[in-house]
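Quick log. Single chain, no ligands specified.
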Amino acid sequence: MVMFWVSVLAISMLLYLLLDGFDLGVGILFGVTRSEASRTIMLRTIAPFWDGNETWLIVAAVVLWSAFPIVYATVLSALYIPVVVMLSGLILRGVSFEFRNEAQRRWIWDICFACGSLAASFMQGVMVGALVEGLQFTDGQYSGGSFGWMTSFAVLCGVGLCFGYALLGACWLVRKSDGEIRAYAHRAIPVLASAVLVFLVVVFLHALIKHLPIMHRWIDRPYLFVFPAIGGAAALVLARSILRHDDRWPFRMVTLIFISAFGTLALSFWPYMIPFAITIDSGAAPHSSLAFMFWGAGIFVYPLMLLYAVVGFRVFRGKLEPTADRHQRSGNADLGKIGSPHPAE
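-> predicted structure:
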């Protein structure tokens, strides 16, 4: 039963990483785009998805709270400030998305949307970096202080995830748009991919210099090198697809790179939920609680959420239509009709 909820938590976190990752990336690129028309098109590409994508963050938090309460309490104690900043950024994004086209001073909400996207992305990377580097614990209790998570390695990871999300967002724009936006995204992909590559090299060297404990896992578990190999192969296909101006494969390959990175971290952490502090078994709720949730949320609610996500992406597949119908769901008059009755593949 514990392994079932570990799997649910891992799948939810991966889905959030991929799905909200591309719309956070679009938000980051949105902030460096000057054209008003281009910004509107960028928002239209994520309008049917952005709020549903953030649902997976809520799912992951609820699973952590209910199935692994000790881990939930410990993580929030250590990472309270970055979590609050991340949530504030996500809230700011949502408010800006809804208010942007109803305001006279649209530029204010444009800035808020971009800053919210950047803040949420950066803090997510910082939290991952803090967990990888290791938090300070004494007798099983967090003892690192309010800013114990703020290290050079964590900040580096925050910057790297911003570049990674921006790369994912650029690939999404290539997949969903045409014309000037597509050309802009195609030009951005090589630059962002190079930045991510530099980040990975710097992080690896930083980890070696600081002798991070998690690096010993690579020696003890050589099978972990399979994931970087998969990521490297995906990067080669990504480069080839960009040279051929393909619209489908860049997003697929960057998604595969993110999956390989997630798999590397997950198996490097194993069997710990918080590296070298709390294991899966010690952090899990009683078996009776896990079983009670399984017969409700586990076999009914969660599969329905997965089905809803699949159907949603299926309905709104294909390139963005150049129509200007009112998008009723978002309440934004300028977002227009999104999706296409004909798939792009």
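Confidence is low (pLDDT under 50) at residues 324-345.
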